[in-house]
């Protein structure tokens, strides 16, 4: 089988299992937030950074946790945490900190039955293989790549939802793109 077709088939199987109501609820949380801060580790962080960039293009006040310009969070704000394996010490600690500051927490994971998930105001489950379960490989893609690829598709669809929900025109987003390239 063509390896590209195989990868696309696997991604399609994951996205077919996404709960669209849960995706819409996550978009509603983001749309209603004051400030948005996002955190993920490794390659998950790279996908989340791309999503944060699109949120910026929509004019939303967004930062990646750890950036020097990241603002304080408080009531009315949202902390978006991604941890495919479900439990990462830094993610759990930051979720706890965000909750203590009064922010809502959106947790995106493949493992919804974890202590981190219990901290979240909303858990968006992406049912894909991650590093947590790659020893029982069900995906031809290595390690957590299936989860990371599914994140890319999820975030792009969420951008479409948010763009429509907030009434943002594509031209407006394009005008916010950097001109320093």
Nearest-integer average pLDDT: 93
Count the strands? 5
Shape verdict:
globular
Order of helices and strands: HHEHEEHEHEHH
> Approximately what portion of the residues adopt beta-strand conformation?
5-15%
- Could you give the distance between the termini? 39 Å
Structural class: alpha/beta
Poorly predicted runs: none
Q: Count of DSSP helices?
A: 7
The portion of residues assigned to helices is 40-55%
Strand order of the largest sheet: 2-1-3-4-5
Computed Rg = 16 Å
Sketch the major β-sheet.
5 strands, parallel
Describe the structure.
With 181 residues, this protein is α/β, with parallel strands linked by helices. Helices cover 48% and strands 13% of the residues. It has helices at residues 3-16, 20-31, 42-57, 89-100, 115-119, 145-166, 170-175, and strands spanning 36-40, 62-64, 78-82, 104-109, 122-125. A 5-stranded parallel sheet has the order 2-1-3-4-5, sandwiched between helices. Helix 1 packs across helix 6 and helix 2 (20-31) crosses helix 6. The longest helix has 22 residues, at 145-166. The model has no long low-confidence stretch (mean pLDDT 93).
């Amino acid at each position: 089988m063509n390896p590209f077709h195989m990868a696309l088939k696997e991604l399609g199987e994951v996205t077919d299992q996404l709960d669209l109501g849960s995706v819409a609820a996550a978009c509603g949380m983001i749309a209603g937030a004051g400030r948005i801060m996002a955190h993920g580790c490794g390659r998950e962080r790279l996908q989340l950074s791309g999503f944060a960039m699109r949120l910026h293009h929509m004019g939303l006040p967004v930062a990646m946790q750890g950036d020097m310009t990241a603002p304080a969070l408080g009531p009315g704000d949202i902390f978006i945490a991604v941890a495919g394996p479900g439990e990462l010490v830094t993610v759990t600690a930051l979720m706890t900190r965000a909750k203590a500051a009064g922010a809502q927490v959106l947790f995106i994971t493949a493992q919804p039955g974890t202590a981190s998930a219990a901290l979240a105001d909303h858990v968006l489950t992406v049912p894909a293989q991650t590093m947590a379960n790659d020893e029982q490989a069900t995906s031809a893609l290595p390690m957590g790549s299936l989860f990371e690829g599914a994140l890319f598709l999820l975030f792009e669809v969420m951008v479409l939802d948010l763009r429509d929900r907030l009434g943002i025109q594509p031209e407006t987003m394009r005008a916010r793109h950097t001109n320093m390239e």
